[in-house]
Amino acid sequence: MKVIELGPYSGPHGGVRTNLLAIRRALIDRGISCTTINLTHFTDAGGEDVEYPRNALEVVSLLLRRRCDVMHLHLGGMLTRRELVLAAVCTLIPRCKTVLTFHSGGYPHCAQGKRAHPWTLRGAIFRRFDAVIAVNAALERLFKEFGVLPARIHLIPPYSVVPPCSAAELPRRLEHFFQQHSPVLLSVGQLEPEYDVPLQIGVLSRIRGRFPNAGLMIVGDGSLREALARDIQQSPCGQDILLCGDVEHAATLQAIRRADVLLRTTRYDGDSIAVREALHFGTPVIATDNGMRPAGVHSIAVSDAAELRASLETVLLQPVSRPPTAAADDRHIQAVLALYRSLVSSQEDRSVARAGVSPRT
């Protein structure tokens, strides 16, 4: 079996990239051919059999030249016209099965998502895929509203958890921050408006009465980095806030495991991989209620500073029972690989049937 994965191979760590890399790693570990076509402008990640097309024409050229059995397209965000065109092109490539994962947890609730209907261009393109992976129940319902056959919709959450190697070390400045602060509040996400990072910065000074040595560590990058750096500089607790930028995933997992609480305060959000990772390690999570948070999350209303403060004080005063070891959890990645095998198997059976030979048993 030969597989092509299309999506953000390079660039900042996020849910889409983490899922793509986990699938790629699982394929390679099993000796399955995997070509990855990077769809971001970042080219610094390297990797064997990874392509970095510079424009849309080079993407199409690669798809036509690279023969494969399964082509898996990963999309996130608000589904631009350019992404729709790419999705349509993928379904036109002959002799391969096409899979789409749409990683946008907030899309069903936006204006475009609420207008979902079979008689739309989006619906027509989605229905051309041999399989679509819904990362949560809301997206599963959305695909049905677009007219995708239920048999082609597969509910497979995007997260997998591989515990970090015990020998993996945090970058020096992160390690120093942990040594100098307790409790440590950790935020893992992008520095974009929807992640509501200023809410986290503002709450730190509000809890310092009870927790005078508290610190806030912010992992991630984005368009608001400079503005947030100015906010931190002007904050009375600025010296106790660390704007980390992007951090390697193994080190991020170490930080999640060691933090006293993970904050996920978003204006809209899907099934966050960082939240799942924190729960896996027994790290308490406070997150904005998006209607789909897993059990164990302490939910708050959007942008509610008072509720965030109250939840933090409650969580930080409770004893935390963490599992001594956290086993790997890759059942969702296994489900994706099983889907690939079933698509290839069904194609082979049809080819045999067309040749006039009885399908294999």
List the helices and strands and how they pair.
Elements: E1 2-7, H1 15-29, E2 33-38, E3 50-51, H2 56-65, E4 70-75, H3 81-92, E5 97-102, H4 111-114, H5 121-126, E6 131-134, H6 137-145, E7 153-155, H7 172-180, E8 184-188, H8 197-207, E9 215-219, H9 225-234, E10 241-245, H10 249-258, E11 261-264, H11 273-281, E12 285-288, E13 298-300, H12 305-316, H13 331-354
Parallel strand pairs: 1-2, 1-4, 2-3, 4-5, 5-6, 6-7, 8-9, 8-11, 9-10, 11-12, 12-13
Q: What is the typical, i.e. mean, pLDDT?
A: 88
Reading the helices and strands in chain order gives EHEEHEHEHHEHEHEHEHEHEHEEHH
Termini separation comes to 19 Å
Instruction: Tell me the number of strands.
Output: 13
How much of the sequence lies in strands comes to 15-25%
Number of helices: 13
Q: Outline the biggest β-sheet.
A: 7 strands, parallel
The unreliable regions are none
Helix content: 25-40%
Structural class: alpha/beta
Oligomer: single chain
Strand order of the largest sheet: 3-2-1-4-5-6-7
Q: What is the molecular shape?
A: elongated
Radius of gyration, in Å, reads: 22 Å
